[in-house]
Amino acid sequence: MTAVADPTTDLRGPRAVRLPSAVSVALARTSVELKQFFRERDAVIFIFAYPIIMLAIFATVFGDTPIEFGPGDEVTFATYFLPGMIATGLLLSTFQNLAIGIAEERDNGALKRLRGTPMPASAYFLGKIGSVLTTSLVQVGLLLVVAATMFDVELPTDPGRWWTFAWVLVLGTASGAICGVAFSSIPRSARSASAVVTPVVLVLQFVSGVFFQYDSLPGWMQDLAAAFPLKWLAQGMRSVFLPEGATAIEPTGSWEHGRTAIVLGAYLVVGLVVALRTFRWRRRDDG
């Protein structure tokens, strides 16, 4: 009798299973992070609406009162505070969102379970960064539309200013995200995360000139703000939306683009080093 080959048997031997690339896994993780983010409707509303509401408050309180930087250089309060609202929105989307969110994932055991899967650790972090970059772009886009249509803020037409906007946005988002990952190891539990992170965010907003004209702050407060990235993120955004005459109220009389890039880049590198050395996948009481 002639033996009939089993069609389920591969006579060529076992096939090598092709694992997905790190990029595809990171993209898949980004999609998961975005779905989880948008399911938290209260957080979505707060993060997206907060800078718009604050801009509306400033524009309503101060109306069309101009801020003068020199002969022929004046803007409305809405225009002046728009860069600060963009900066503080990015701070919420990146640093605060990740510092609190990761602490909660660690506390409820989600990080421990993820660590036990074949997913590379890098895919988890790239997914977080991809998620906050996407939400930051949506948030900033909404803010610019509202500012232009409801408060008559004139958006720049010079391509060079939009190039500055792009690199400040990307570098600020990346550094804020990495610092949020690093800071997430400080809260001891999910219940304490908001209490630990929120005061830091509020203090940075007040000392960095987000809610006030930066030159009206005391000298010691300006020096304190210069040690943190939010001040440089806001200053970089001011260089995009304010006239050149506005450099008169900056501490050095210039936009300091080089120093802005150095400070944001330094926080990105230092935050990455700290995150790699201190990040924990388990709760403190879980070994």
UniProtKB/TrEMBL annotation:
Belongs to the ABC-2 integral membrane protein family. It comes from the Bacteria. InterPro entries: ABC2_TM (IPR013525), ABC2_TM_bact-type (IPR047817), ABC_2_transport (IPR000412), Nod_factor_ABC_transporter (IPR051784). Residues 42-282 form the ABC transmembrane type-2 domain. Its main location: membrane. It is found in: Cell membrane; Membrane. It comes from Actinotalea fermentans. GO terms for biological process: response to antibiotic. The chain crosses the membrane at residues 43-62, 82-103, 124-150, 162-183, 195-214, 261-279. GO terms for molecular function: ABC-type transporter activity. The keyword tRNA processing does not apply. GO terms for cellular component: ATP-binding cassette (ABC) transporter complex. It is a multi-pass membrane protein. Keywords: Antibiotic resistance, Cell membrane, Membrane, Transmembrane, Transmembrane helix, Transport. This is Transport permease protein.
